[in-house]
Amino acid sequence: MNVIAAGKAYINKMTEESEPGMKVLMMDKETTSIVSMICSQSEIQQKEVYLVERISDSQNQNNTMALRYLKCLVFLRPTTENIKLLCYELTRPKYGSYYIYFSNIIAKADIKVLAEHDEQEVVKEVQELYMDYLAVNPHLFSLGLNCPINDLTWNVDALQRSVAGVISVLLSLKKCPLIRYQNNSKLCKELGKKISDIISKESTLFAFGQSSQSLLLILDRRDDPITPLLNQWTYQAMVHELLTIYNNRVNLSKVPGISKELTEVVLSAEQDAFYAKNIFLNYGEIGQNIKQLMEQFQMKAKSHQKIESIADMKNFVDAYPQFKKLSGNVTKHVTVVGELSSMVNKYHLLDVSEVEQEITSQNDHSSHLQGIKKLIANDKIRPLDLVKLVILYALRYQNHANNEVVGLIDMLKKRNISKNLLSNIAYVLEYAASITRQNDLFNVEEAVKITKRFFKGLSGVDNVYTQHKPLLQETLEEIARGRLKENLYPCMGFNNNSNRCQDIIVFMIGGTTYEESLVVHSFNRNHPGFNVLLGGTSIHNSNSFLEEVKQSVLNIPKKSSRKFRNLECQ
Predict the structure, then answer these.
(1) What is the C-alpha to C-alpha distance for residues 232 and 242, in angstroms, rounded to an integer?
(2) Residue 300, exposed/middle/buried by CB under 10 A (0-12, 13-18, 19+)?
(3) If you ran DSSP here, which 8-state letter would residue 234 be given?
(4) Which residue of 78, 188, 313, 416 has the fewest C-beta atoms within 10 A of its own C-beta?
(5) Residue 98 forms beta bridges with which residues?
(6) Burial classification of residue 276, based on how many CB atoms lie within 10 Å of its CB (0-12 exposed, 13-18 middle, 19 or more buried)
């Protein structure tokens, strides 16, 4: 199961099945992001696509400038708004012919409406291409949904979008799965039911004749609120935490002295061999590999210093595209890693991370409390990191007889940390308390179990900064052993023995993380008999997670678990 390969196959189908000749590609905002995640502009141009435009812009253009010699490939999400815009386009066609592709299942009624507006008979083809998600890594996809939960219930539009996104993943991979969901989450059950209903309704689309059963496992972020709060130390995760990755792009415009061409850089494993090689490596390894990349570039640059003949010129021109690409990669990654290094040193993130990891992985209240107090006294530590540390402490020790959550908050107030930032402590506690967690991440009475889950012996821990293991790792191990409990993760509909499933699609409501992506990557590598794909409503760093938590609980009724709100004003 490879979502990038599936997406590329659909793009090839879309660009190659139409008649030869110059083409224009018309998309909406979302499908533009979907395509750009897996296909560069130069790759698109190689497929005879010489113009890309947004359908929302098309109706504002003067159609007297018709380009009848161009064929128009239309790739849209099948939304009501897009159908209206496409009808308008077909009544005043600029192009000679239209090949229409929808990213998901299109209603027959909408097909009829389009046919009625195609008075000049310019539409040559209408197809469904199930590419209604952002393919991030081969084993990772996102729906790019921010804050899909309001008042701890589904936002109606977000639920509909999540159903459509997961359905398109299943269809693109040709999977008709058994559905299991987290039993303590109404959100999971509701999503699972709607997906199951569509699979039943569209049974002919899902008749793949599979040789083996696959599994769709729907999880709730609230069962593990810890993982999104931690600092990260592998390349992709670290960049997202400190700089933020948005649709494979990183904004570096705020970096002091940054050149114009580096204000935004693309980090795509499909288009960047260095990034692909280092995406899951840790901070120390990346530094060594950056050094090697620079040395490689210097050697190539030196070999091109002397151009004394026509032959030298020809050799340089022949090598120039690769040379230019290597030059760009060196500059890009040196800049990115340099900024990461600067932030790590400036904000003492190694010290912060060490305490974070100890809180999540060990059982020593006194030591953890002293560690946090020491960092609060250090004015070099960012307010955000201090607040996250107190959140982790509060989540772990809120029921401890000697917990000092209130005292730590008072210390933060003396640091003049804003009330807006401090309120995150109460919000996360309320968010985590809104679900009775099936898996107690911090059971002080079961220290042995905690050690087994998170620490797994000193010999298995790379260093003090990578002790924590997301709850997803334990869940996948339970699946591999055939021990995923039916009462905790019931089946939607009939039970077809999911313990035999080897193709597993995990979808996390409330967003997943790059740390969990690493877990899936490692699991697939260590369990060759299994193939796991991870997806989520979004991919969080700690900032986006805290914002989503706030939106999820901000307006819930006062009669609920708002007992935590008094932490804000004590």
Answers:
(1) 9
(2) middle
(3) B
(4) 416
(5) 72, 123
(6) middle
β-pairing verdict for 245-246 and 512-513: unpaired
> Which amino acid, one-letter code, is at 289?
N
Torsions phi, psi for 247 (to 5 deg): 50, 50
DSSP assignment of 438-486: SS-TT-GGGHHHHIIIII--GGG-SSTTS----HHHHHHHHHHTT---T
Does the pLDDT of residue 531 top 70, yes or no? yes
First to last CA, the chain: 51
pLDDT at position 182 over 80 = yes
pTM (predicted TM-score) = 0.90
Q: Which two tokens stand for residue 292?
A: 């090697």
| Strands 153-154 and 149-150, bridge-based pairing | antiparallel
Query: What pLDDT score does 443 carry?
Result: 39
Distance CA 539, CA 541 (A): 7
Cβ neighbours for 104, distance < 8 A, ≥ 6 positions apart: 77, 78, 128, 130, 132, 164, 167, 168
Please report, as a single letter, which amino acid is at residue 417: I
Domains of the chain: 3-130 (3.40.50.2060), 136-224+470-537 (3.40.50.1910), 235-346 (3.90.830.10)
| 363 pLDDT more than 60 | yes
Alpha-carbon distance of 81 to 359, in angstroms, equals 49
- For 510-556, list the strands marked E by DSSP: 512-513, 531-536, 539-540
CA distances from 125 to 33, 97, 111, 378 (A): 23, 9, 11, 65
Residue 174 Ramachandran class (φ > 0 left, ψ -120 to 50 alpha, else beta): left
| Contact indicator for 94, 63 with CB cutoff of 8 Å | yes
- DSSP E strands in 87-225: the ranges are 95-102, 123-128, 134-137, 140-142, 149-150, 153-154, 178-181, 214-220
CB 244 within 8 A of CB 251: yes
pLDDT of residue 313: 52
Instruction: Produce one character per residue of 34-46: b if its CB has 16 or more CB atoms within 10 Å, e if not.
Output: bbbbbbeeebbee
